[in-house]
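Students often ask why we bother predicting the structure of a whole assembly rather than each chain alone. The short answer is interfaces. A chain on its own may look different once its partners are present, and contacts between molecules only exist in the joint model. In this exercise we take four input lines together and write out one structure for the complete complex. Read the inputs first and try to guess which parts will touch.
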Amino acid sequence: MGEMRLKTNGPVTLSDVAARAGVSIKTVSRVVNREANVSSATRERVEAVLSDLDYRPNIFARSLAGSRSYLLSLLFDNPNASYVHDLQLGALRQCRAVGYHLIVEEMDSGAADFEQQVARLLQGSLTDGLILTPPLSDNALLLAALAARGLPCVRIAPYTAGEVGTAILIDDAAAAAELTTHLLDLGHRRIGFIEGPSGHGATRLRYDGFASALRARGLAPEPDLVVTGDFTSRSGMEAGERLLARPDRPTAIFASNDDMALGAMLTASRLGLHIPEDLSVAGFDDSRTALLTWPQLTTVRQPVTDMSAAAARVLISREPMPRRIMFDLEVVVRGSTGVARG
Amino acid sequence: MGEMRLKTNGPVTLSDVAARAGVSIKTVSRVVNREANVSSATRERVEAVLSDLDYRPNIFARSLAGSRSYLLSLLFDNPNASYVHDLQLGALRQCRAVGYHLIVEEMDSGAADFEQQVARLLQGSLTDGLILTPPLSDNALLLAALAARGLPCVRIAPYTAGEVGTAILIDDAAAAAELTTHLLDLGHRRIGFIEGPSGHGATRLRYDGFASALRARGLAPEPDLVVTGDFTSRSGMEAGERLLARPDRPTAIFASNDDMALGAMLTASRLGLHIPEDLSVAGFDDSRTALLTWPQLTTVRQPVTDMSAAAARVLISREPMPRRIMFDLEVVVRGSTGVARG
DNA sequence: TTGTAAGCGTTATCAA
DNA sequence: TTGATAACGCTTACAA
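Now the answer. The structure tokens for the assembled complex follow.
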């Protein structure tokens, strides 16, 4: 049929729309990308054809020709599945709302080949920006590599200030202090503290808040009542054993996250202690775990999905990135904490 | 400087390598893609330059020109964070091993606009294949849309046979029967069963296995001892309450997943029942939850990450997709089940 | 065995 | 306000 070539099927392209609307592809492109300098008459006509043909831009052509990929990556290296999951959800929903997609990458910052992992990740780098989740938010090697390549990144809940990207911050210390004060107000004086692993940013902040609240009341943290876990329930159980096996056991336990608090509760119930009559238990994060326990956990709500949604928003906007964004935390009092006995 | 154009920086491309190796870009392409018909001398020379310049193919150019995107998507709509997480991990690691990336998408199959969600997902479809996780593996609307567009998909643990894609199967019924037999062997005769939500594929299979094991011993499931949950711990707690409040309460509870089993255990411990002396509890999945409890849960191990890794492998291979791949399950006996009292 | 040339569907440049 | 036309970096015919 010579020149006459009818597209029978396949995805609708800019030229399909252009042909039908009687304009050039550049004009269609302008309309699609909401650029200026299109007469409203033309714009309307093109828009009609666009929705008529149900045009969808080809993300690969876009990325190849242009300077953005419409892809974001979220990096994680955290044993806490539900925390990672919630973080993903926030970013995912924000991405979807604006036509972006989310690529997830697992890193192993403890592995010997971490440097290679980073190199491999960035060499093939195909995303417009990275969302770093704890403990990656504080990984010096990763941050340096990102800075060297000028890749935009947002660090979720980092501990160190750092010069790179945007930090999404929550005031862990203030919230931990507030929760500790809640326990003090209930009459508790011997409070066990289960801290997180030392590499993790939140660990020190939460402990600092705990300690400062005690000091504000003229008390001091007792070294024997501070034990270390790794943010898993299992470690919380073990920490609970160490704390509760003591003859002068604490009347309350404050765990640095909900999973460890659950572990402590399981140990307590195994030892025949009733919560909150014999022992108050509090966690941190208000994860799903906090609702699984009985009684439900007193904890600190961290707006995890909001934080990761904000992270995605910052990366997508392509405007100058703010140094930091602060989120408020909230102490959530539930049934697991009560008046100290005696 | 006329023709002389020195690339000062920017990513290394095929032509950079070609120029340096003194061959055409097509030859370099052949080497990169391990195609035949390249003399070993040429191949070696090109490979040297390739690694020398640290060439990385541009995934967007590849996708635009070729027929694959080096991207897979994993769809989920499941409240169980750790199940989804483990599934992601398996797919993620498989992808990474072969230079693919994983895009995750959240769907809401209960929403009124689900059809639009599917349309939007597939219109912009940029991946080489989809991994469907329960309960999406059985979603008729989604499967039909996928089939209509000829998009390859792998269905993880579907309940219905279906004509579409590859099914990654586990013999839920056999495993549930085996676990039930374990309880019967311990002397339990009144066994409570907490089933999953009705939309979920595994729900009926696990119940069927439970029922058939009872029948094999001349017993029958008692309708009063079968209650429904939604796979969350919370629903397990509530189901536990209904089962254990009865005067003739069961001596064992078999929950269709670990989270619900944890819920039942929490209820039991609240009611002052000791496990396993007063009550045996068993779960299903061998998720992290199974190790959080005390005593640890007797459960069924489902090789979740292996299953999703296999799913990714099938999609990436581009060979004719098998109708089904079977995985073995394993009953894991731990401390939460014991000899029936009396 | 190797190379040439034509796309792939966009964005970007520059002229009209 | 518009539109040719050249990239973008690769794969895929097809030729040599």
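Check your guess against this: Residues 23-27, 30, 37-39, 42, 61, 63-66 of chain A lie near DNA strand D (CB under 10 Å from a C1').
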